[in-house]
Design a protein that fits this description.
Protein name: Probable 2-phosphosulfolactate phosphatase
Largest sheet: 4 strands, parallel
Cofactor: Mg(2+)
CATH topology of the domain at 5-33 and 99-225: putative 2-phosphosulfolactate phosphatase
Family: Belongs to the ComB family.
Order of helices and strands: EHEHEHEEHEHEEEHHHHHEE
InterPro entries: ComB-like, ComB-like_sf
Keywords: Hydrolase, Magnesium
Strand content: 15-25%
Helix content: 25-40%
Strand order of the largest sheet: 1-7-2-6
Structural class: alpha/beta
Shape: globular
Number of strands: 11
Length: 235
């Protein structure tokens, strides 16, 4: 059978594809996957944890000999803000709760899981092909959540997934082809589209425009974070 790249949205997409593919690439551009890339490229390890229960997260961090990330608005502390991780110390194990990327990362089952973003597109595609060893690959745009909990497809994750699919250069499902075509159509407007998307505007409005700027940098990282023993690490 021909090696194929698939793509479906969110947690339901992970659950639909995890038994059919050898590798899952989780794409949560603003901000989980970008944060993971920045931290692991500096020698840290990122332990994903579902967002919401602070006491459970602290207990899990203590059990894993990890530091629990602070809330994003804590100021000057390690958090889900990619900017806060640009000076992270090599060797730190950081437990990073997030509502989307962390939850999806932990749902991969027996598939190998990578964290992909615009910064590490080529590196992730190369590592995914290596780990897949001829098996199928799924690239999962995480998306966001509406107030009622429903999935909100996010333009930045669609374009990030499309960038990785383009770099994989393999036959695609129809869904993966649409994501790839969207990325190629964005062309030189890619960063401006993400800045102007709902998530980009929200982050900038909350004072995190620097995080958006880090997230729209394309192919500036050679790191392909792989989830091993519950932690994302550089290969």
């Amino acid at each position: 059978m021909t090696q194929t790249v698939h793509s479906e949205w969110g947690l339901a997409g992970v659950e639909a594809l995890r038994e059919r593919v050898a590798v899952l690439v989780i794409v949560d551009i603003l901000s989980f996957s970008t944060a993971v890339d920045i931290a692991t490229s500096r020698g840290a390890a990122i332990l994903p944890f579902p967002y919401g229960d602070t006491d459970a997260a602290q207990a899990a961090a203590d059990a894993a000999n990890a530091v629990l990330a602070a809330p994003r608005n804590a100021g000057g502390q390690l958090s889900l803000s990619p900017r806060s991780l640009t000076t992270i110390t090599s060797g730190i194990r950081l437990m990073l709760p997030s509502p989307n990327g962390s939850r999806l990362s932990l749902a991969g089952g027996t598939a190998k899981v990578l964290a992909g973003c615009l910064r590490n597109t080529t590196a992730v595609a190369r590592q995914a092909r290596l780990l897949a060893d001829g098996g199928d690959i799924a690239v999962i745009p995480a998306g966001e959540r509406w107030p009622d909990g429903g999935l909100r497809p996010a333009v930045e994750d669609l374009l990030g997934a499309g960038a990785i699919i383009a770099a994989l250069d393999l036959p695609t499902s129809a869904e993966a082809r649409v994501a790839c075509d969207a990325y190629r159509a964005a062309g030189p407007d890619l960063a401006d589209i993400i800045r102007g998307g709902r998530s980009g505007r929200e982050l900038a409005g909350w004072g995190y425009a620097d995080d958006v700027e880090l997230a729209v940098e394309l192919n500036v990282s050679a790191t392909a974070p792989v989830l091993r023993d519950g932690a994302y690490q550089a290969p």
